[in-house]
Amino acid sequence: MADMRNSPAELSPADFRAIGHQLVDRVADFLAELPEKPVAPAMSPREMHALLGTSDTLPDVGEDAKHIAQHAAELVIENSTFNGHPRFFGYITSSASPLGALGDMLAASVNPNCGAWALSPVASEIEKQAVRWVAELIGYPADCGGLFVSGGNMANMVCLIAAIRAQADWSVRARGVASGKQLRIYASEEVHTWLEKGVDICGLGAGAFRPVPVDDSRAMDFGALQRMIAEDRKGGHRPAVVIGTAGSVSTGAIDPLPEIAKLCAREKLWFHVDGAYGAPAAVLPDAAPALKALSLADSVAVDPHKWLYAPLEAGCSLVRDAEKLRGAFSYHPPYYRFDGEAQDPPTNFYEWGPQNSRGFRALKVWMTIRQVGRDGYVRMIRDDIALAREMCDLVSEEAELEALTQSLSITTFRYVPEHMRPDASRHLEELNALNAAILEKLQKDGVAYPSNAVIGGRFAIRACIVNFRTQSEDVKALIRATIAAGRELSASGSLAQSKS
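The structure corresponding to this sequence follows.
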């Protein structure tokens, strides 16, 4: 073997193998022990920082690689919030497939730059195939344009940028977004905050986002949408994009996507679906009928690191007309010579999104889909939904709990002391404070980790299950812990004291 340059960043094959084997063994032990660990550590930022045990001053001299790997493993494994824990019910971050984690290691080791095909030939072909598989899984046209990005915010934003460029009556690239009538973007008032960020980043102005009221199911009020579009046209504005949500972040509500699709076709509006969470549920044979309308959208955002169980980061933007995606992002500077032969042009993903240098995000998704297959996703997603419904049923059987919503794999509920049940509306402020304190206690104690939602002014404990490790006993553990925390906090009188 040729002599290696004496570089402080290099590892010999023997050292790499020894450190890697030791790290893989530690991670395998961690995965086996995960259900017995607290879901989250109970430490302040100051206490957590102190655990690092390293100086805040940049080190002048490097350390031993084996020691660094061991130290890093202990820090991360013993002091993290574990979204792969079977009792992690917060937000929408799934248990990551172990094979996908190994895929990340392989991708980082080879380190292809997935901006241009010439720099990442096999990686580009894997990404193209993985995008097609994601599209097929949700029932979207497989010949669409698409690419992998960091997550739901960026997946939606890439689609929004393509929509704005396609819907403007002028060249946004040449003249900017403010050169014509203000474009109006419509979405449910329950839409994820990515849209507020997107409208801001794209320079449309906050007034471009028109939040549409929701109905009793927390889904978009379709009649209100129609009225708002008509009013905006009459007022001289330019209705441009309607965004339907396939699984809202708070409750899992699904907007009336088929009706929105027909309206957009009639009104010549761009129909985008934020399917970051709920779109994969379209794979179910008995999926909600509204999810079948994903196939009608001009664009869809999906988050494989949510319900496809890929490790972070993995978002996916899908655009029906690939040329509209390319038209929004393609530039050809003189220092890029990546076009290839005309008869066999390569896919250069720098033309399809905002990044030039891109990591190999697709590998972990591609490997996980190959391992699981369509049937595996049907089984796991169906199990998650069944567990969420079981949670709602069990909550309804408890005198001290009140079920509020249930959709897809999200259940929301709150603790209501029995003496308040007959007239809970009179105690709204007190109940909101009590349930906020229960949530904080649950997260700190580490038995289970839900998050929150606000439903009609009521502070709710929110449990989302996108986790192939969660079982019925974990659902029951959350319910028991909630009741115990509610009783303890109610009996202590601490809330009343703090308010006084």
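Confidence is low (pLDDT under 50) at residues 496-500.
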